[in-house]
Q: What sequence folds into this?
């Protein structure tokens, strides 16, 4: 399997079956750099982060729009969609109660793959847009 296949499989499986189903494709020493800059190291901690994140949103899916590959590096652009219907753990340690709102959030991932496993992921998304979509921040007139 090439790097593109691995990353697309991981995101498709995350959407369809959740974090536990992708464990075999995550390197034991994997690193995830989250959108807030937090560095999460080790497969179990990465999976735990994904579990907590996904627990706050029912039917959370990622639609992959663009994939670019340079050897073991894969850049993926997509949209995350779901309903915020459970408590969301925030990087500050606080929680945000369920809002019932839908999110439609553009995101980008830069992943590195070795031996058919993801070894590093850097994820980028607009956290202010997320908070605005959840109703925590006021909307800006004319903004998407």
A:
């Amino acid at each position: 399997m090439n790097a593109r296949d691995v990353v697309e499989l991981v995101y498709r499986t995350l959407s369809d079956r959740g974090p536990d189903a992708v464990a075999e494709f995550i390197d034991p020493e994997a690193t995830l750099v989250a959108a807030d800059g937090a560095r999460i190291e080790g497969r179990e901690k990465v999976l735990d982060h994904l579990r907590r994140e996904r627990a706050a949103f029912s039917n959370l899916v990622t639609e992959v729009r663009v994939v670019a590959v340079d050897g073991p590096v894969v850049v993926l652009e997509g949209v995350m969609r779901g309903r915020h219907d459970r408590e969301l753990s925030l990087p500050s340690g606080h929680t945000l109660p369920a809002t019932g709102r839908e999110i439609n959030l553009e995101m980008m991932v830069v992943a590195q793959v070795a031996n058919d496993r993801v070894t590093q992921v850097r994820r980028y998304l607009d956290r202010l847009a997320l908070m605005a979509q959840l109703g925590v921040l006021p909307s800006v007139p004319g903004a998407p």
Q: What stands out?
A: Residues 3-17 form the longest helix (15 residues).
